[in-house]
Design goal:
The complex is a heterodimer of chains A (about 160) and B (about 270). Chain A has about 160 residues and is α+β, with helices and mostly antiparallel strands. Chain A is built from five helices and five strands, in the order E-E-H-E-E-E-H-H-H-H. Chain B contains twelve helices and 14 strands. In chain B, strands 4-5-10-6-7 form a five-stranded antiparallel beta sheet. A four-stranded antiparallel beta sheet of chain B has the order 11-12-13-14, with helices on both faces. Chain B has a three-stranded parallel beta sheet with strand order 1-3-2, with helices on one face. Chain B is globular. Classes of the chains: A alpha+beta (about 160), B alpha+beta (about 270). Chain A: This is Carbon monoxide dehydrogenase small chain.
């Protein structure tokens, strides 16, 4: 089937199999390999992207379901050379160890902060419960999200 | 994991969806948010030849005030239930329980209708619908019919929705200041409940305590006879036949049901 999907601000028309999963469309058709496949069972969150601005697990969405919609991947966050505030906070607070879960963590965090710009520590933890870090580096990930929230709030004031 | 090949069809309206179901019969499956169906298709436990996507039907996503009741479109997502002010005020049990399903990503996709029609006894919303005495509106070629939640869940993954029909709306009477609570015990945040309990007033429903979501009738009868929450909760395992598997034994679940029912009843009374 033919799908038209806006990926990171650019509209693309592509032929895909009806059964193509969104994560495979992103990685294989669009060549954007920042989005990882972890568990492939809607559990780990490594494949999290934004669909119309909200976090989804792209291993459990058909490319066909994204037809006519907008997808943002980790590659679409930065503004040129300037990192997104959440990306910058993950770098500064060292919110990663091996890095495999990081793209999904960052995308889930962006979605979380859109819905709740000033989360508490507990709200960050429950807001990221769909993302698993097998290095168990949660402490710095939570610090990163709180730092990003603080910076974004300051910038808005 | 990739689903077996199928033909994707997008329904343009409820009538179009019914026509596609009539055309393809039992080879077709309806796709709402996809968070029950797609995992089964990836494991090839479900191998439909045709997938009819309802996702493009915005007219089935709403939470509406209907005077004495609230009407919810079948395609309303868990996220929208959890953040609905109307539900938060009039049916807080549903808003709260929806906010505990899976994780934020799952709640951005999964729908109330998909969850109810899937009929998984381990899902949260079927038990919530039972406790709230919801009325489910099922539409087929001959028109709409209303099914009380107590008659909706037939067996393991089996509901009153016949082939060729679809669920369009869920109606729930406003609850006013009625006490409520939802208890769910999971090993990890995103897991299905080992056991769950939904309480609305003196109605009590259980998650994952048998082949289908069920009302805890013995608990309700004890409450009606004047028993305290702690006394009534002792009846929570009566008539149940919970799964006995690697997550928990049946005996553990029956013990847990008593603990969670007591907690839920006490919390509901304190609200």
């Amino acid at each position: 089937m033919h799908v038209t999907i806006n990926v990171n601000g650019e509209e693309h028309g592509d032929e895909v199999e009806d059964r193509t999963l969104l994560v495979h469309y992103i990685r294989d058709t669009r060549g954007l390999t920042g989005t990882n496949v972890g568990c492939d069972t809607t559990s780990c969150g490594a494949c999290t992207v934004l669909l119309d601005g909200e976090s989804v697990k792209s291993c459990t969405v058909l490319a066909a379901q994204a037809d006519g919609h907008s997808v943002t991947t980790i590659e679409g966050l930065a503004d040129g050379e300037s990192m997104h505030p959440v990306q910058r906070a993950f770098q500064e607070k060292h919110g990663l160890q091996c890095g495999f879960c990081t793209p999904g963590m960052v995308m889930a965090s962006v979605s979380l902060l859109r819905e709740n710009p000033n989360p508490t520590d507990a709200e960050v933890r429950s807001g990221l419960e769909g993302n698993i870090c097998r290095c168990t580096g949660y402490h710095n990930i939570v610090e990163s999200v709180l730092a990003a929230a603080e910076r974004t709030t300051e910038a808005a004031e | 994991m990739i689903p077996a090949a199928f033909t994707y069809r997008r329904a343009s309206s409820v009538d179009d969806a019914l026509a596609l179901l009539a055309e393809h019969g039992e080879d077709a499956k309806l796709l709402a948010g996809g968070h029950s169906l797609l995992p089964l298709m990836k494991l090839r436990l479900a191998v439909p030849e045709v997938v009819v996507d309802l996702g493009g039907l915005p007219d089935l996503s709403y939470v509406e005030d209907r005077g004495d009741s609230v009407a919810i479109g079948a395609l309303t997502r868990h996220h929208d239930l959890a953040t609905s002010e109307l539900l938060g005020r009039e049916v807080p049990l549903l808003a709260h329980a929806a906010g505990t399903i899976g994780d934020p990503q799952v709640r951005h996709r999964g729908t109330i209708g998909g969850s109810l029609v899937h009929g998984d006894p381990a899902s949260d919303l079927p038990a919530v619908a039972l406790a709230l005495d919801a009325v489910l509106v099922v539409r087929g070629p001959a028109g709409s019919r209303e099914v009380p939640a107590t008659e909706f869940f037939k067996d393991f993954f089996e509901t009153a929705v016949e082939p060729g029909e679809l669920l369009t709306e869920i109606r729930i009477a406003k609850r006013g200041g009625q006490g409520w609570d939802f208890q769910k015990f999971t090993r990890r945040a995103i897991d299905w409940a080992i056991v769950g309990v939904a309480v609305a007033g003196d109605a009590v429903a259980l998650v994952n305590m048998g082949p289908k979501p069920m009302r805890a009738s013995a608990v309700e009868a004890a409450l009606a006879a004047g028993a305290s929450p702690a006394e009534a909760a002792e009846h929570a395992a009566e008539g149940t036949s919970p799964p006995d598997e690697h997550n928990a034994s049946a005996a553990y679940r029956q013990h847990l049901a008593k603990v969670l029912v007591r907690r839920a009843l006490e919390n509901a009374r304190a609200r």
